[in-house]
Amino acid sequence: MKNNVLKILLLIAGLTTACTKFDHTNPFDANCDIDWTPKNLQVEVINNSNIKLTWEQHIEQISGFRISRKTNNNEFTQIAEVKLKNIGNIKLNETEFIDTNLIVGNFYIYQIKAWADQFETDNLSSIEIHFDFDCNGIYQGDATVDECGVCIGGNSDQDCAGVCFGDSALDDCGVCDGGNADQDCAGVCFGDSSLDDCGVCDGGNADQDCA
Asked: Which residues, in sequence order, are bridge partners of residue 110?
């Protein structure tokens, strides 16, 4: 009787174990069924040659991160592997990476994966940037160089003849290099006053005698 009861209990225990679904939450487990992909990948531009990548990692039981970069239309290549010093305890500086010697004008795409032993995340985080600066050195600014080579100059260094840094100037009548030749004798631009034979403006020769 006791043996039969024991057999029944063992059978129940075996059935219970067989029907129980265990969670696989450890990335070191080949059957891990949770998403342990790095999240919220961000780029901070440091200067015209360096950027800083930052991201978040909520599952800390990993070995580290692998970062790949694509430049313009080239293929992705791995540029860094960040290895955790203490598995399960990710420090702030272990979720950031500084990429150096970038070239202004290039397009860059960054991808990051987490890894644990021989396993990698199936998914990845990515971000794309156009590493472009305006003439004032502002990242993705809108300042431009004018025709005289001056940043945000608005061609203000052109003289009235359109010559950069030239010395032509508008006269009082708004004529470039006109020398006020369009003023009449009364000083009126494009006026019709004139000197008479006696040199009097609008004198009508009234200063001439009868001889």
From this structure: 69, 127
